Amino acid sequence: MPTVTANGIELAYETHGEDGAPPVLLIMGLGGQLTMWPDQLIDDLVGGGYRVIRFDNRDIGLSHQHKGEKPPKIIRQIILRRLGIKQKTPFTLLDMANDTMGLMEALELDSAHVVGISMGGMIGQHVAALAPERVQSFTALMTTTGNPKLPKPGRDVMQAMIRRGPPPATRGEIIDASVAAFGVIGTQGEDHNQNGMRDRITVSYDRSYNPMGVARQMAAIVSGGDFRDYTKRVKAPTLVIHGSADALVPIEGGRDIAKLVPGAKMEVIHGMGHDVPPRFLPEITAHMLTHFRANDV
Question: What is the C-alpha separation between 144 and 27, in angstroms, rounded?
């Protein structure tokens, strides 16, 4: 697995497609390794004529891990944040945006079509605001702006994301728990044991298991709070893709991005939750390729 030094840390990455093809940079969400991107999506983007770069964000997968750095207790952090009290975290969304820009510099990417999913979409908004010359186009998948007035996830969703009690201990228990979480936040009616989700989770677990890294990434999200000031600064042609049935990041988050970014276009995937099941991939990929081609240099 190749790595580069970016923003002072090591980031693991992969490239797919021809070196001379227009680049697409994929930024993954909370706790997701680069292996969580569906292979079919990668293949279809490459088949559409693009070079695809995917990477592990800091503190996950094979990238730099902040071992020994304790994140604040998430429930306490959320409560204090709502009271206007910001706790110190090992790193922030802004740090992760600087990682992304450092990766682009290390790979000598003058610009790219930037795609961010969930937390990756939050990072992408920061990148597009801070380095507009590097973002040829921006695609925001199932993400939000941190606007405190937007609807919040339900209690069952929060319980699935922040488990209490003894954590799962064995490989099988950990994989089962992760699949079960997608049964709550993902598209309802999907068999996440059979649609590729369990396979990607298993590959990710065997590649690297770092639950404290996930906790530190979640702390960075909470610390980010309301970042609409960054969203409003996005100038890149922007496509927002959001599932109508997203229980973790309600669709109002995507609509907020579309409202705040001038000229942004929004596509609603009816019935999709906070995941990308195979049955929705052709529609999502078609929207992305249309967006890229309209904004190729």
Answer: 14
